[in-house]
Amino acid sequence: MSERWSDYVQKQMRGTQQELSERSGVNAATLSRWLSGRVAPSHEQVIAFARGIKENPIQALVMAGYITPEEARTTVNDVRIEDVDDLVLLDILRARAVRRARRKA
Predict the structure, then answer these.
(1) Does this model's pTM top 0.85?
(2) Is 18 part of a structural domain of the chain?
(3) Burial, 71: exposed, middle or buried (Cβ in 10 Å; 0-12, 13-18, 19+)?
(4) Count of domains in the chain?
(5) For residues 80 and 93, what is the distance between their CA atoms, to the nearest angstrom?
């Protein structure tokens, strides 16, 4: 894991670890392991953490070492929803529904 990730997480602390846990939706014990460098987050965790604290997931992926700054600057072409496969859309909606249900639980 990149040392930059633990620094990034530390900079997001505006109060206690518990408060950051509540803002981000990440378990306080997981935050502690990230801060100590004992555990590296998955790319899914990085994105969820960034979204939870209302930060740019691309920046978080760079800080976690999943993508380079050069890759982050890549232009993304717009995708029309009509061009996306129905099964892919259903998978995206299912995953979103599961995440929302977990947040409410």
Answers:
(1) no
(2) yes
(3) exposed
(4) 1
(5) 16
- Tokens coding 19: 């408060």
pLDDT in tens, 31-49: 999 999 899 999 999 999 9
Range of the structural domain that residue 30 is part of: 3-76
Tell me how far apart the alpha carbons of residues 57 and 47 are, in angstroms, rounded to a whole number.
5
Tell me, yes or no, whether 105 lies in a domain: no
With respect to residue 91, please indicate whether it lies within any of the assigned structural domains. Answer: no
Predicted confidence band of residue 8 (pLDDT cuts 50, 70, 90): very high
CA pair distance 48, 46, nearest whole angstrom: 6
DSSP 24-55: HT--HHHHHHHHHTSSPPPHHHHHHHHHHTT-
